[in-house]
């Protein structure tokens, strides 16, 4: 019996895959035999992540420089990925920023626009370039595509002092649902992963705050914060054939935080 989680022959892009949750997803995808293209802005982090994934000895790996706030950069990275692998079966739009926590009445228009450019426009642009390619393949008889966005539980709870971040992730959830309906006819599923509080470079400063840890950790039934590899399982499932009828959904991975 064949392994339904064997991703050999599939190719996935993971934006922001050079660290944090993106690297956790990329590790699992590579272990499952998937070829992985890491997109990131930091050449040194890209190189280290590529070396780490290659050491797993599983799927082929490449790293591409990409700034998801720049559509030309996205188009170039996608073209290089196609040149390297010949196809893209999955786009994990994981790259994003957290923004500066402060009272909403002090938020400047520039701060709002900069965060939306990365967290909403970047996801939409990555999905658009991948969907064009996937639709072309579907019309040629090769109907398979996976679009996955990294959202946040901030999109479903009140993100006080971080309203622009919560709003950006809420927009991603709505985008996922709309595209799921539009693209299903082409064999493309579209879903979102909603992490809770998880360890990454983005949250390092937050977790260094003893008051924050003291107040939040008891609210997590698992009694720990998330780790990058905690998000690999759902990434692998969504990339596999087993998720072919699962679309338009928000997968909350938060150790039970939002139910407690």
TrEMBL record:
GO molecular function: oxidoreductase activity, acting on the CH-OH group of donors, NAD or NADP as acceptor
Native source organism of the sequence: Oceanicella actignis
SMART domains: PKS_KR
Similarity comment text for this entry: Belongs to the short-chain dehydrogenases/reductases (SDR) family.
Family matches, as Pfam families: adh_short_C2
Residue ranges of domain Ketoreductase in the record: 10-196
Record protein name field: Ketoreductase domain-containing protein
The organism's place on the tree of life at top rank: Bacteria
